[in-house]
Amino acid sequence: MKYSKLLAGIFLSLSLPLVAMAAEDETAWNSTLKSEFFAKQAIEESNKVIELETPYRAEDPAIVPIKVAAKIKQTKEHYIKKITVLVDKNPFPFVGEFEFTPDSGKADIAMRIRVNTYSYVRAIAQMNDGKLYMDKKFVKASGGCSAPIGTDFDEAMKRIGKMKFRIDDGVKANEPSLVQLLISHPNLSGMQMDQVTRFIKPSHFIEQMKISFDGKPVLTAKTDIAISTDPNFRFYFVPTKAGELKAEISDTSCQSPTSRKVCTKGKTYTETFKVQP
Questions:
Q1: What is the pLDDT of residues 38-78, one digit of tens each?
Q2: What whole-number distance in Å separates Cα of residue 127 and Cα of residue 79?
Q3: Assigned domain for 36 exists
């Protein structure tokens, strides 16, 4: 019995660092992030306006699927204007800022992100009247921002900027329609090693995205290094009639010799899709 207790004590002492690492720590949010991004604004922690969906334990920290689901309709009088996504303990906590309009139909946004260590992921919604609501989830992941670059990097750079829309069949006029935008882009974090050269690649990522339907904005976004390779966004828009869905993205730089042939710094890439309700 004494021997069993001794072993249990040794196991507990060895596991304490792991327990500390896994603790649902909010120090970064309380000490710096809240004041940095929201100054002295009041934030109500609630899932009555938006609800954040994440896995509790990430299968792959470099492609963690998350979704922010709106609980209210987008109307001209009352709508979600902006959703900010943060990962508390990432080297750069800012994931993205996504702006919506009543023409978005629903202020939902889904994507894949990098999570570098055990951390809270937060989604903060700003209403058109300025009120803020936050939902958060704790995610267990490790090494997402420094996950190595694949061996086909140069081939990936040849496809940079190519985009494709996927949209549900049976789109109905004046109703929110789900659309998926797939973007070919390495979205380098600046912390990843090229498996061939063994050098760290400079950061090179999509920093702005604009989605419009017949010239009216549907979704506008500012994003950073936490968005995964080959970004994949899902969101809604309301087709009032037959028209053109358009995506424009711009990135930060073009670093490899291969990529210089096909892109220039700050270049805007465009994709359009004809919609017929």
A1: 998 999 999 999 999 999 999 999 999 999 999 999 999 99
A2: 6
A3: no
CA of residue 98 relative to chain centroid, distance: 9
Rg of the chain on CA atoms, in Å: 21
CATH code of the domain containing 138: 2.60.40.10
**β-strands 177-183, 163-167: how paired?**
antiparallel
Cβ(239)–Cβ(173) below 8 Å: yes
* Average predicted confidence (pLDDT) for the chain: 85
Question: How far is C-alpha 147 from the chain's CA centre?
Answer: 17
CA distance linking residue 209 with residue 157, whole number of Å:
19
In this structure, is residue 252 part of a structural domain? yes
Residues 6+ apart with CB under 8 A from 254: 160, 204, 260, 262, 263, 264, 265, 267
Counted domains in the chain: 1
225/211 Cα distance (integer angstroms): 20
pTM for the structure as a whole: 0.86
Of 178, 267, 277, the C-alpha closest to 218 is 178
